[in-house]
Design brief:
It is a single chain. The longest helix is centred in the last third of the chain and has 16 residues. Strand 5, helix 9 and strand 6 form a beta-alpha-beta unit. 41% of the residues lie in helices and 14% in strands. Helix 4 runs antiparallel to helix 8. It is α/β, with parallel strands linked by helices and 226 residues long. The protein has one domain: Alpha/Beta hydrolase fold, catalytic domain (Rossmann fold, 3-Layer(aba) Sandwich), CATH 3.40.50.1820.
Length: 226
């Protein structure tokens, strides 16, 4: 059985490479399409044809979390379980999202102490200078119109279709300063039976702790499929 992975706001595998190298599971990585509206329902419709035709487990990271309920509601999608990885099903701190209205990522990172702020607030000083620089580069390379559209979508997520029963797990970073408490609690509200798996780290947990993340995801995958 495959583990299907859909990435967060950056939409590509930049933060997944080391994580996937530690996995001993058959995987399928699906990037976020950019040639369509960026709301989660449209993204789900575009992604659905790429999914396996047999049962699989879905891992959704951060921004991609709200794609999962739309996929789960599709009768032909054979979901055996959902792993929400530092993800959300309700808007995060809207003040953070307002920045995209006024500045591009490249402009933000030119501000004084921007890299220090990235390292402390978003990476909890868990990352090496090289990792901080890599995160900065990845964010800067998100097309500006895509970044703005995705951050706008985050303000209004919710109101999902009725959910068929499915095993759900969510990995929560203990020091996540990107997601507020409402966002952190949102998965359990949509899926009351969801099991929480806390890990020490920042919102970029999957990138900064790839080995530990892979070990936990493997354990959850095994629980879902055994």
């Amino acid at each position: 059985m495959k583990l299907v992975m859909i990435p967060g706001l950056n939409g590509n595998d930049a933060f997944f490479i080391d994580f996937m190298a530690h996995l001993e599971i058959e995987t399928l990585f699906i990037p976020l399409p950019e040639d369509c509206p960026q709301d989660h329902e449209t993204l789900a419709q575009r992604i659905a044809p790429e999914l396996p035709k047999e049962p699989f487990v879905l891992l959704v990271e951060s921004y991609a979390g709200s794609i999962a309920p739309y996929l789960n509601a599709m009768p032909d999608v054979q979901l055996q379980g959902i792993i929400f990885f530092v993800s959300l099903l309700a808007p995060p701190n809207k003040m953070l999202l307002e920045l995209s209205k006024f500045m591009s990522a490249k402009t933000v990172f030119k501000l004084p102490f921007a890299e220090q702020q990235l390292a402390s607030t978003y990476l909890n000083n868990d990352a090496t200078p090289e990792q901080v620089e890599f995160v900065k580069t990845v964010v800067e390379n998100i097309p500006e119109h895509i970044l703005k559209e995705r951050t706008e979508v985050l303000k209004t997520i919710g109101n999902f279709p009725p959910q068929p029963p499915v095993p759900v797990a969510y990995v929560e970073a203990s020091n996540d300063k990107v997601l507020n408490q409402r966002a952190k609690d949102s998965i359990a509200k949509v899926y009351p039976g969801a099991r929480k798996y806390p890990m020490e780290g920042s919102h970029f947990l999957l990138y900064t702790k790839p080995k530990e993340s892979a070990e936990l995801v493997t354990r959850i995958f095994t629980e879902f499929t055994s």
